[in-house]
């Protein structure tokens, strides 16, 4: 049996902000989860995230700490 699709009355955005930590210099910063350009660390200029056409993909030099709503 197929479940009926439940539509939200007010749609919520699927984008979010993410607190990430650079593993090279230990700097923490907040980035947009759907970034369309490369996100670099403000302290050491290493690439933290790259765009993939939708969501930004975190590089191995960054670790996700918290998803902000």
In summary, what is this structure?
By secondary structure, the protein is mostly beta strands. Helices cover 0% and strands 41% of the residues.
Give an overview of the whole structure.
This protein has 69 residues and is an all-beta fold. It has one domain (17-68): Ribosomal protein S27 (N-terminal domain of TfIIb, Single Sheet), CATH 2.20.25. Helices cover 0% and strands 41% of the residues. It has no helices and six strands. A three-stranded antiparallel beta sheet has the order 2-1-6, with no helix packed on it. A three-stranded antiparallel beta sheet has the order 3-4-5, with no helix packed on it. A hairpin with a 6-residue loop joins strand 3 and strand 4. It is elongated. The termini are far apart.
- Output the strand order for the largest sheet: 2-1-6
In whole angstroms, the N-to-C terminal distance is: 35 Å
Unreliable runs, pLDDT <50, ≥5 residues?
none
> What is the annotated CATH architecture?
Single Sheet
- Per CATH, the class reads Mainly Beta
Share of β-strand residues: 35-45%
Question: Average pLDDT value?
Answer: 91
CATH structural fold name: N-terminal domain of TfIIb
Number of strands: 6
Tags for this entry?
elongated, three-stranded antiparallel beta sheet, mainly beta, 69 residues, 0% helix, N-terminal domain of TfIIb, 41% strand
């Amino acid at each position: 049996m197929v479940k009926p699709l439940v539509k939200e009355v007010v749609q919520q955005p699927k984008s979010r902000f993410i607190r990430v930590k650079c593993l090279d210099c230990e700097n923490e910063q907040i980035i947009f989860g759907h970034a369309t350009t490369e996100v670099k660390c403000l302290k050491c200029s290493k690439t933290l995230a790259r765009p993939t056409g939708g969501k930004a993909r975190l590089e191995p030099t960054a670790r996700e700490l918290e998803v902000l709503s």
